[in-house]
Amino acid sequence: MQIGERIAFYRQRRGYTQSQLAGLVGRSTDWLSKIERGERQMRRVDLLTELARALRVTLGDLMGQPVLMEEDEERDDIPAIRDALMAPGRLSRVLFAPPSDGRQPDLARAEQLVEFLWADYQRGRIGEVVERLPRLIRAAQQLEDAASDLDDGGRRRAWAMSARTHHLAATTLSKVGEADLSWIAAERAMKAADEADDALVLASAARAATHALLAVGRYDDALSLGETAAHWLGPQVAAGDPNALSLLGMLHLRTAVAAARRQDRAVATELLGHAEQSATRLGEDGNYWQTGFGPTNVELHRLSAGLDLGDMTWVVRRGENVDVAHLPAERQVTHLIDLARALSYLARDDDAVDLLLEAERTAPALVRHSAVVREAVKTMHRRAPVSTGARSSRLLALAQRCRAVR
């Protein structure tokens, strides 16, 4: 189903008339009727969030559930990630104290592996990350259990490794539409960061939590968390630490997106300005703490905010002139998806498909498992004239790979 059809489904389940639901979100019955019939696109995510709240469902329920990843070399390890995150032993260390065999987990090896997987994530190799995350999460849990037996430096490193692991899990799960699991992983990242007693680790984990909050439509909470975490970086930022500048800049960028999604243009513009100041001080498109932060990333988030604010023509005109070739593949693909969505809203479907196919060649899983891509492709496929053969063309093939059509 398209978004409009899912809205109609849940509205009927709740026993609301179109007039009643439209009134709950301050819109006209005609507006809701056109949304449900697919005659009008849902461009503003804040309105979708309001509808989800009125219908008492999640944002993911209206956006569409994630699809399985088994087409990627017949691998689907999301269930294994779920099992690792929700293992009963994580509920209580008293009830489920791990047996001690005298052997300590290899902390250095675990630290090395999480950095390798972060590199894979930035290269767009989501399938490889998903496949290896369960093992890495279990290693992080073992290190948490053993942390109290380590010296102070080792204890903090163990908790920092766990925070980095769960941050990676939260970000990856968010990318493939697993919003609820992403939130669990982000919460674990924040708790581990508290124990690590390191402002950089805490700020990085907070960045993961803002991703999870954005995925479930909690924009005010994302703003509050990002702004609070930013204050913890004060001393390092004042000293010009590039790690702190990058993390601070990314927190401002994530909160700017949160502001844009709740249609607060003034706050979004202010936060983008703060991020630009950090990028100017950094002076380069760096990748400290796997942020990919710098002047170009600020520009990409400015375009992303413009997309959420409805500035489609501006996003297309400005976005086509941004050079992203030097950025991590994940950032390149995210930009291409944003630009393609703006083009699809302007009914420039051929151009949008060109960009999505380019993005798919770079990182297939990031495109095929994106809920927003799936909706854009579904919309373009439905309005493609059958007489031109468009539905049997590359658009249909892309729609099938994205599970947008059967």
UniProtKB/TrEMBL annotation:
Q: Where is the HTH cro/C1-type domain?
A: 7-62
The keyword Metal-binding is assigned to this record: no
Which Gene3D superfamilies does the entry link to?
Answer: lambda repressor-like DNA-binding domains
Q: Which SUPFAM superfamilies match?
A: lambda repressor-like DNA-binding domains
InterPro entries the UniProt entry points to: Cro/C1-type_HTH (IPR001387), Lambda_DNA-bd_dom_sf (IPR010982), TransReg_Diox_bact_type (IPR050807)
Q: Which branch of life, at top level? A: Bacteria
For whether the record's keyword set contains DNA-binding, the answer is yes
Its name, as the record gives it, is Transcriptional regulator, contains XRE-family HTH domain
Gene source species: Pseudonocardia ammonioxydans
